[in-house]
Amino acid sequence: MYTGVRVLGIDTAGRRVRVRVFVLDEPLSADAPLPQGPGFFFRFLWQAAGGRPEVHGPLADVVKLFDAADAGRFVERVEQVNARNLPEDAQDLERIAAFYRDHGTDWEEEHLGDRERWAYENHWVQGDYDLWVTDRRWLAPFEVGDDVRLTWPPPLAPGEEPDDALFKLGWSREQQGDLDGAADAYRRAADAGPELARAQALLWLGTLHAERGEVELALAAYERVHEDPSTPWTHQARAALELAILTQSCGGDEAVLRAYTLANQAGAPRAVARARAEAGLETPGERGFRLLREGDRAGAVASLDAAYGTDADVVEFALALYDGAFGIAKELFQGAGGTLCSQKMGEIAIDAALGYASAGDTASLNAVVRVVAEPWEVCVAWQSLIDRSSSVPADVAVDIGRQLIGMTGRQLAPEDAAAIAEPAEYLYPQVAAAGFDRMGEFVRRQGDRAAAAGWFERARAMSPRS
């Protein structure tokens, strides 16, 4: 059975992630159409950690080959929250199977390209689950809105297979409580192994030292990852994140900024978002906004240059937002050269919006929202806000989301309502409800009453985050 899993919400401190599981091929039975058991969710964790481009999580360091029998070491428990479209009998099963045959469920095409994919999703067999893991590190690769397709047999973790016997020995000793023995094995792996094995051993050694309060030793381990030019960028970003968080805990603003900027330059928005949430760090955009408001324009420019200096338009865009030159900012956003440039501008726009919200300047906050209200591009800025949800005032996020929903069908494409609502479903149900209602109205005007009923039903199902 092929399945797709979407991340709805993440509670790192509570070691919990809420996911939605979609059945992507015809259900074979009315008795158990959804996957059951911890093995499936362990496979989800493992594949998400090492089976996607440009994503590498700590779980991929310790599990090279999937074995469902290992699930209990990583999955603490699973609870099903709800289910939708479950077949009630053989006749209903055939009706659902017919829909699958007629419409298809190609996750890659439907989920990454076709903007009408959400209408199909309303009809798929699906269920929401809360998944608790044994270590918060297993949640590191995720961000809200991630989609993972699970295939069988699962692919091996990408990249070179390191000679990691010493690393595995360290991890085994750490699980048994022998921290001195674990540190010794990690150090030996870092000194003797190939590039990837060295990097992962140093990351785990740094975490072990940090958890024991051995800050200097932890910093030294993370710095070694940065000093090695052969280290994969995914591990570079993880090391930069840990450096930023650890340095913040013991002071040193310049060192924090340097480490945080490294994570930002690595193109690692997940790392940046986690650093902001866990250590209260300012993004370069937030720092620039604050310094400019304090009268230090040179400091603001320096902060932006350190993070975005290779993209002059991004720096100019930020300064235009900070100066209230929203017309100029709009022109720069519309002329952004490429997805990465748009992503950076979207992140800075959220920084500015939050800064204006904190200052009580609602007019400027609304002006920033209008700047990024461009068809197909607005989701970049909205995803940036979702990524840092744990440190964004909920009322501000809801206000921004509702404004964007209200623009759909005018400044924004009607289908953007679904793109805004989907990632907000767990975090900001009020926004999701507004977006689903908007989609219902849109498809009803097109004459598709059945699809409209599905959207309205999803709007009514929204409830406060649990």
Explained architecture:
The chain is of the alpha+beta class and 466 residues long. It folds into 4 domains: 3-150, no CATH class; 165-279, Serine Threonine Protein Phosphatase 5, Tetratricopeptide repeat (Alpha Horseshoe); 282-352, no CATH class; 373-466, no CATH class. 59% of the residues lie in helices and 8% in strands. It contains 23 helices and 5 strands. Strands 3-4-2-1-5 form a 5-stranded antiparallel sheet. Helix 15 runs antiparallel to helix 16 (326-334). The radius of gyration is 23 Å and the shape is flat. The two termini are 30 Å apart. The model is unreliable at 107-117 and 152-162 (pLDDT under 50).
Total strands: the figure is 5
Strand order of the largest sheet: 3-4-2-1-5
Helix content: 55-70%
Our count of helices gives 23
Indicate how many domains the architecture comprises.
4
Pfam families: TPR_16 (PF13432)
Protein name: Tol-pal system YbgF family protein
TPR repeats: 163-196
Keywords: TPR repeat
